[in-house]
Amino acid sequence: MKKVVITVVGKDTVGIIARVCTYLAEAGINILDISQTIVSGYFNMMMIVDMTSSKKTFDEVSAELDRAGEEIGVSIKCQREEIFDMMHRI
Amino acid sequence: MINIFEVNETNKMIQQENLDVRTITMGISLLDCADSDLNRLNQKIYDKITTCAKDLVKTGKDIEKEFGIPIVNKRISITPIAMVGASACRTPEDYVEIAKTLDRAARAVGVNFLGGYSAVVSKGMTTSDELLIRSIPQALAQTEFICSSVNVGSTKTGINMDAVKLMGEIVKETAEVTRDKDSLGCAKLVVLCNAPDDNPFMAGAFHGVSEADCIINVGVSGPGVVKYALESVREADFEVLCETIKKTAFKITRVGQLVAQEASKRLGVPFGIIDLSLAPTPAVGDSVADILEGIGLEKAGAPGTTAALALLNDQVKKGGVMASSYVGGLSGAFIPVSEDQGMIDSVLAGALTIEKLEAMTCVCSVGLDMIAIPGDTKPSTISGIIADEAAIGMVNQKTTAVRIIPVIGKNVGDTVEFGGLLGYAPIMPVNSFDCSRFVNRSGRIPAPIHSFKN
Question: Which ipTM did the prediction report?
Answer without folding.
Answer: 0.90
